[in-house]
TrEMBL record:
Family matches, as Pfam families: AsnC_trans_reg, HTH_AsnC-type
Protein name: AsnC family transcriptional regulator
Gene Ontology cellular-component annotations: cytosol
A single GO BP: response to amino acid
Organism: Streptomyces tateyamensis
Highest taxon above the source species: Bacteria
């Protein structure tokens, strides 16, 4: 019996070693293959082969920088409902939003808005400028914003 199992949604089989490598990458995407290999009891070459295979299969889609909004002085927080023109694909929304470092997270949602976007900014002037830039993106028809007053949980 194999120790592989499908990930949520079907499709790709991952074994325990793949999961371990992904967990290490998730904690530190800049870790070297040698560092990950020490933690996973594999050679750097074996780690590279496995990660290359995971990338080829689409499990790992890329590597990115995650900014700490508070260290950047981005104390103002908002949730923005984005309403798109007809036939705007989620991929188009993603491509538009990826260019904004102020976007902390974004989701497609049910209901009237097409996407819900979590923003962090230095102040309301910065927030307004970002929202205006998002509203000018192709495919975006309008938006509705809610500024966070205080965080209750999380």
């Amino acid at each position: 019996m194999s120790s592989s199992s499908p990930v949520a949604g079907g499709g790709v089989q991952l074994d325990e070693t793949d999961r371990l490598l992904l967990a290490h990458l998730g904690r530190d995407g800049r870790a070297s293959y040698a560092e990950i290999g020490l933690l996973a009891n594999l050679s750097a070459t074996a780690v590279r082969r496995r990660i290359d295979r995971l990338r080829a299969r689409g499990v790992v889609r890329g590597f990115t920088v995650v900014l700490d909004p508070e260290l950047l002085g981005w104390q103002t927080e908002a949730f923005v409902e984005v309403y798109c023109r007809e036939r705007t694909a989620p991929e188009e929304i993603l491509a538009s939003l990826r260019q904004f470092p102020e976007v902390v997270a974004a989701w497609t949602v049910t209901g009237d808005p097409d996407a819900l976007v979590h923003l962090r900014a230095a102040d309301t002037r910065h927030l307004e400028a970002v929202i205006e830039r998002i509203r000018k993106e192709p495919g975006v028809q309008r938006s509705r914003s809610s500024v966070v007053l205080s965080r209750l949980i999380g």
